[in-house]
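Hi again,

Forgot to attach this to my earlier email, sorry! This is the prediction with zinc ion bound. I've pasted everything inline since the attachment limit keeps bouncing my files.
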Amino acid sequence: MRLRYVDADPRTLDTPLLAVGVTEGADPSSGLLADLDRALGGAVQRTFASGDMKGKSADETVLYGGEGGPARVVLLGLGKSAKVDAEAVRRMAGRAVRTAERLRLDAVAIALDPIDGVAREAVAQAAAEGAGLAAWRFMELKAEDEDDPTVTVRAADLVGNADPDGYSSGALTGAAIARGANLARTLQSRPGNVATPTHLADEAVRMAGSVGLDATVFDEERMLEEGMHALLSVSRGSEEEARFIILEHRGGADGDAPLVLVGKGLTFDAGGISLKPASGMEEMKYDMSGGAAVIGAMQAIAELGLKINVVGLVPSSENLPDGRATKPGDVIGSLAGKSIEVINTDAEGRLILADALTWGSRLNPAAMVDCATLTGSVVIALGHHAAAVLGNDDDLVGELRAAGEASGERCWQLPLWDEYRKQLDSPTADLQNVGGRPGGSITAAAFLKEFVGEAKWAHLDIAGTAYTDSERPGMAKGPTGLGVRLFSEFVLARARG
Ligand code: BES
Ligand code: MN
Ligand code: ZN
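Structure tokens for the complex follow:
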């Protein structure tokens, strides 16, 4: 989708559809609504008088224009003005794209309106993200319905009449982030037989080439040389070789400590010998969502040319049962040199992350953040509306919480007190890979913490948020690309200093 800022008077804009947000109690006789009312021969006033448009968040009315100016105007209710924030703008822009789709239009214009307490740049960024995310669809493996072809909205112009610098830079930022999130969603959507570890690595390398990132990929032979035994233990039961993907963005000064982003790239999680039940197992193609988020965020960071060093790490493997697969009770090694008793082979994400986190910690990062569909228990704790964040540095956790609020990808802190570590004590090895049912997301993080060395580190558990089975405004069912916006916002804030 083409996304750009256009500095113009919305009244004279030549567009098939102009979307305008309306807050509760908005006055149709002032501002943009009054201007449009004149351009539409009083239609706005009549709509308000009819009571059909109260500005409530589900309200939606399409008006038709005459000569010159927008051919159609869709008024979209935003709810109470005190509650309108960047997320409301994101949803509004997404609904604008949905309206265009329904009307079979391939372009839309979205009027930008200032919000108290939100920078112009953030308003335009949110609108670009909302429109870009809404226009995404995964059609690679499905034939077109010839009688009812899908309408793709190819262009969204964000229109304002003030602060062109702030608005246009926000639009560029939002467009890059939306492209990154949509790349992640495409990778997430691809089934396990397409998106293998090798495929993920190939796609990362291709993306890196197109935006100017450095990419390095380790095969299993190289991993063995390095001593990545935990990662290799997961891939033993699979015919598909594991990969370790390293992406580097050198936007800062040489020698400046990098931010390290780590993502779980488990391309299919059958559970291994501790086999998962059949029902719903197909969803485990999404177990590479954290890795996809790192790849998408690295693309956005590179496109935006952020002046900071960032390294993305994606350990990628399948987790399948086989005669050679790791068995419950097996003791494995790790890059950090710690021995691990594998009690449950389905707790594999923490194993592949352990080696990646050790690798990352050796880069002496300014901070390291990982993102993973790690535990079912995070879904019990937080449902589908927040990722869990845990870490060894409260300032870093605070930065991620703030990035979550700003980006609309919220996260909520769970504690990581030392007491939880006892649940991982093993009679035979340095630690075991599961800590029982109590506090399952916390003991998973406590396991990861053992492998981060001295790094300031935080972990995001996205098992409840990486994909959705309910349609949301501007977000189709399926993969959400969650993590890309949050990571991008976190890195942007660091780059701004
Ligand atoms: N990939 C799963 C976690 C998951 C669950 C992701 C539901 C998305 C939705 C992970 O590898 C896993 O199997 N975790 C186990 C850990 C347990 C064996 C300690 C779990 O959560 O059941
Ligand atoms: Mn598992
Ligand atoms: Zn998994």
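The chain is about 35% helix and 20% strand. The chain has a mean pLDDT of 97.

That should be everything now.

G.
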